[in-house]
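To: structure subgroup
Subject: Chain for Friday's discussion

All,

I'm putting the inputs and outputs inline so they're searchable in the archive.
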Amino acid sequence: MAFPWLSASILFPIGAALLIPFVPDKGDGKQVRWFALGVALVTFLLTVGGYLNGYDPAVEGLQLVERIDWLPQLGLAWSVGADGLSMPLILLTSFITALAALAAWPVSFKPRLFYFLLLAMDGGQIAVFAVQDMLLFFLAWELELLPVYLLLAIWGGKKRQYAATKFILYTAGSSLFILLAGLAMAFYGDSISFEYTALMAKDFPAKFQLLCYAGLLIAFGVKLPIVPLHTWLPDAHGEATAPVHMLLAGILLKMGGYALLRFNVQLLPEAHAQFAPLLVVLGVVNIIYAALTSFAQRNLKRKIAYSSISHMGFVLIGIGSFSALGTSGAMLQMISHGLIGASLFFLVGATYDRTHTLQLDEMGGVGQKMRKMFALWTVCSLASLALPGMSGFVSELMVFVGFATSEAYTLSFRVVMAILAAVGVILTPIYLLSMLREIFFGKENTELASHTNLVDAEPREIYVISCLLVPIIGIGLYPRIMTDSYRASIEALVRRESSAMALVMPTPAGNLIRQAGLQASLQAPALTG
């Protein structure tokens, strides 16, 4: 490549963050926030430039490759690249971070540190999706932990120390499995290498793959999050501010889904063939348990947080579907939920700034005074409950159809899992529409109205939501805008899954998976327009 698009996208925001102490500012953060917004926008343009100038969606392999030897004796190198699994998420990361910088406009407490952490997270999260070396991946994975911890611990709510500590214990503790699995795979065999291409070429034995897969599933399951490894998320969301919400829901959870595809499916396909039924079951548990829990929540932030956990269950089902359509749906669900989750949590923060409460029991009847805010809430909630014409509907439908038509599983298993998952789909509109009713309709809380300034949505807030709604509606109306960008990579991944499944007989869930005609049965439906 003539220009290092990916390296620039990673290093530019991190380098710019180091310059924040030298930005002239009077202490109110006005100059710093303009500087941070400019850096985030330039980073977004860099990722778009890389997509337009060096990425071909029709190519299934790695593109935008940049490699510099670091410690060749240990097989360490600065290796970055992008394929269909990573490029859409790189674009999502830079896009959400730029909007989060705009959402952070009211931040006046320690603005230099806040925007420093925001920009450092931008580069670190792009690195998670772009690096092609497992040791670099681990370092990037750890890089974003400290900024999130500080953003929660310093700018969070009343229980911010508890939420931040719980986050760091869960995520940092589970990260040890990534390091152990990475070292084991890198040092296995005659050659030492941490690069993904070299690890894919190694012939790992079945038991070795199962051990690595189990460890990585725990590590990535915390981030996704998978029940019962999810309990840090409602606490983190319950104490975070609006821009941190956007980063958590829009990007952080997607790191877990991406890593499952990149490592568990791509590098350990034989182990994935045995664990796939478990992923489907865990996905259904996520959908039902989190939907029921969200239905019972009276705290607005925690209600949306559990809704996020429920929606990520579709990602697990798609990953375990052995279908190109289902896996593509999982990828689209990550992108779709990144946009929808960011919009909902931004509105939660904007609503709290006006009402100074998160308890649904203390809200009511504010729709007459905040009509624009009500309209924004309604559109984003309809997107979250998978209204046709929105991105959530397309992604969930692809997962359902992909799993239901995959002949890798018996008909009875597919029917039972689909019916159970549908329960969560039914619960979602119930708790979201009832939430809207409690906030904006019903008897007006006179005490709330008299003690708070219930101003309607400001132009900045309308602009942020509009930027998120454009891709949400665009993908919903014409999904190929996004699916074509990763179609080739997903189909290559499913072919690798299918070949591995043919070698793994019997599986732990052998009664669920057909024992005859396996090669023919694993022909996943083609991705069509």
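Points worth raising on Friday:
The first helix runs from residue 5 to 18.
The longest strand covers residues 63-71.

D.
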